[in-house]
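Form 7-S
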Amino acid sequence: MPANHQNKTKVVILGAGFIADIHAESFHRFVPEAEVIAVYARDPVKAEAFARRHHIAFWYDDLERAIHEAGADVVDVCLPNFLHCQAVLTAARAGKHVIVEKPLCMSLEEADAMIAACRQAGRLLMYAEELCFAPKYERVRQLVQEGALGRIFQLRQCEKHSGPHSPWFYDVEQSGGGVLMDMGCHGLAWFRWMLGRQTQPVSVSAHLQTGLRHAQRTRGEENSVVIVTFANGVLGVVENSWAKPGGMDDRVEVYGDGGVVYADLFIGNSALTYSEKGYGYALEKAGTTQGWTFTICEEAFNQGYPQELRHFIQCVQQGTTPLVTGEDGKAVLELLLAAYASAGLGRPISLPFQPKVNKPVDLWLTPPPS
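Output:
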């Protein structure tokens, strides 16, 4: 049943680019509990065009006015990375709940300030990691929790395409880095989601490449391989690229001593699974799922954006803690920082790792003395 208009949680979207479009569409199509009432963009032409395209009542080119005057309950931050901290602090001071797109921010100091501001204001802060809500990947996590794959020893996540959709991604002053900041954060967050927050990462090793497809546009890394070692011995391998022609790839692999699963976010609606034990809600059905099977998930919107946004709106309405928090975003940022430092120094970085740096990519472009 559609939510009563009077009881809907009101949302202002900050940003008018690609990801803001996805958020607006997700709210309109899949989150009946919410209503997007305003949008902000630095460019007034883009703000007005976005509002018209998505049938949004108000548009702003002033951040403070958008947050204070629109009358929203929730601020949805879809801005370039270097503006995340300012937007969250402003929203918290105005008494708004906040959901912020990845990566959380540019430094651990900014992360601490954002978390503290929302806590002091008594408002929720959610880190928008859609892979924690993607239906197919959640079906994979359920397989692991059921024990279908035995003891897990390696995770792998890959996200690759030929380059970002907005120019600011290529400017490391605005983005903080290259493909790692853009997409590597997804894999690192997914590892923590799969293994649980209690499973601590102990070291990070990374190799970064640049000068591939976008040498004239960015100083940031265009291709990356990062290996995270966890305290329980599990290895997490995340591969990302802005240099892969032929469209978007997003896939995960999970290896256990009793099975393996491969899931591609954009191809088909099942995850290719091999389980020696079998899986299922009833043990008597497990025999039918032994060996190779196609594990089906219920899909609404493959990448998980509607699910994460609806989850946050429900948290706001019910006063509950989001599944993915600002603290989770900070933990992912620490892994990103360690990856850049590893690539810059040419050696693994032990955790915890808390460098003082203006933007993560500096640890690679101008590494400190070893």
